[in-house]
Amino acid sequence: YQDANQIPAWATGAIAAATQRKIVVNYPNLAQLTPNRNASRAEVAAFVYQALVNAGTAEAIPSPYIVSGTLDSPL
Length: 75
Hints:
Elements: H1 12-20, H2 41-55
């Protein structure tokens, strides 16, 4: 992420894991995580849905805003 330096050290592992599992949904900019602001209801809903997809209990919905990659190279 372009703003990876703003991610608190305690959160980097969890964010990296969520990114690798395609749980992170970034709208409108895939390259910006903006980790220090509050998440909207829509963002939380998208995150939960992607977690269900990752668990195999929901059908994947194609989206250009689903991040795939790693924390060092998310795109």
